[in-house]
């Protein structure tokens, strides 16, 4: 029998590491005063496809319910959490979650996430807490080779604000900027009749690197208060990270939002050994407009499957076998309960190819049962 595309079985270390990653996340967020939340795996599609959330229905696992409404397997945690906590008192600011999301447009249909959302809080505080929680979590996973990338949706939006594009053109331009396709960007801008914008956007594609690039663009954008304010904001976050011991921080001034509800700072974490993304997130204040709330909201999601692949395997405990019989199984179980640190297996006979550090056997001696080492 075969599995559907995007599905897979798992065994061994990947499962063990993922369970450890989950427990470590629970402990880290509990210590940092996050409140746990869980949302249903089945939601109405409109939670994610409405005009504010703006997600693509075609990427979701969906069906019609008995009333003819479209239901989906949860494709995104942020929109689901926003729906769940929109009615909570503003004093409830810090939330954490764990669970799967399901998308057709990803390599794996199901991916496990652990994430945080910070709402109703000072904007810089929320961003700082998000990033420092990421640093603390990775440290507790013993993952220390990573890079944090910072970007901001406002740069692209500010540069194009005086130019008219159709919705289709703007969507295509966002995709081209996201993929850093200079040729496509130039083509779209030229066809829209905005050749004078081309140089600015093409330069933005290459505006990527260490924090020194901020000084370069502060000079280039002198007199553009909105843009220089964004640069200062990014610089403050870099200073915070460096003061907290993070040395690998990069800037992507050409970063554009990959989901419609992002509207400010964006961040990602990359593992340096293979470049895989281990977390991503950003600001999404406008997501709460659908609930008639004007507030601050920021968060990030860790990709637990990715992290589990890069965690070191746990040191294997001593593995012991106790040979018993149906008559002596209870005796063997009593002995097993006395062994706290070992992995203890009870068998009726030794299996070929299965190795143990030590083997015991329940034997009868002087009308008593004893467990003795073989």
TrEMBL record:
GO MF, one annotated term: glycosyltransferase activity
Natural source organism: Gracilibacillus caseinilyticus
Tagged with keyword 4Fe-4S: no
Pfam assignment, any one: tRNA-synt_His
Keywords: Amino-acid biosynthesis, Glycosyltransferase, Histidine biosynthesis, Transferase
Superkingdom field: Bacteria
Organism classification: Bacteria, Bacillati, Bacillota, Bacilli, Bacillales
InterPro entries (UniProt xref): aa-tRNA-synth_II/BPL/LPL, HisRS-like_core, HisRS/HisZ
Record's protein name: ATP phosphoribosyltransferase regulatory subunit
Domain Class II Histidinyl-tRNA synthetase (HisRS)-like catalytic core positions: 29-306
Transmembrane spans: none
């Amino acid at each position: 029998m075969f599995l559907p595309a995007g599905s897979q079985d798992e065994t061994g270390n990947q499962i063990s590491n993922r369970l450890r990653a989950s427990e470590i996340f629970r402990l880290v967020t509990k210590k940092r005063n996050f409140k746990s939340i869980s949302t249903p795996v089945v939601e109405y599609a409109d939670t994610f496809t409405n005009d504010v959330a703006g997600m693509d229905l075609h990427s979701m696992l969906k069906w019609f319910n008995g009333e003819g409404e479209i239901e989906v397997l949860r494709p995104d945690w942020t929109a689901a959490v926003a729906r769940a906590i929109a009615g909570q008192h503003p004093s409830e600011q810090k939330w954490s979650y764990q669970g799967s999301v399901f998308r057709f447009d990803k390599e794996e249909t199901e991916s496990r996430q652990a994430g945080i959302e910070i709402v109703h809080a000072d904007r810089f505080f929320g961003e700082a807490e998000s990033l420092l929680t990421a640093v603390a979590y990775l440290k507790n996973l013993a993952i220390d080779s990573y890079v944090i990338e910072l970007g901001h949706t406002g740069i692209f939006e500010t540069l194009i604000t005086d130019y008219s594009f159709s919705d289709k053109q703007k969507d295509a331009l966002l995709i081209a900027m996201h993929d850093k396709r200079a040729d496509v960007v130039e083509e779209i801008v030229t066809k829209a009749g905005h050749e004078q914008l081309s140089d600015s956007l093409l330069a933005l594609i290459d505006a990527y690197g260490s924090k020194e690039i901020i000084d370069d663009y502060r000079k280039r954008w002198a007199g553009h208060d909105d843009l220089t304010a964004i640069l200062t904001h990014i610089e403050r976050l870099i200073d915070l990270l460096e003061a907290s011991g993070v040395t690998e921080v990069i800037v992507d001034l050409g970063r554009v939002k990959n989901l419609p509800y992002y509207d400010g700072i964006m961040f990602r974490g990359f593992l340096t050994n293979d470049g895989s993304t281990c977390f991503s997130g950003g600001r999404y204040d406008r997501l709460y407009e659908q609930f008639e709330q004007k507030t601050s909201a920021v968060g990030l999601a860790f990709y637990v499957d990715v992290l589990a692949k890069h965690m070191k395997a746990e040191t294997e405990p001593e593995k012991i076998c106790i040979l018993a019989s149906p008559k002596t199984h209870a005796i063997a179980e009593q002995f097993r309960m006395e062994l706290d640190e070992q992995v203890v297996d009870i068998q009726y006979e030794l299996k070929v190819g299965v190795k143990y550090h030590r083997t015991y056997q329940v034997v009868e001696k002087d009308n008593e049962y004893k467990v003795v080492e073989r």
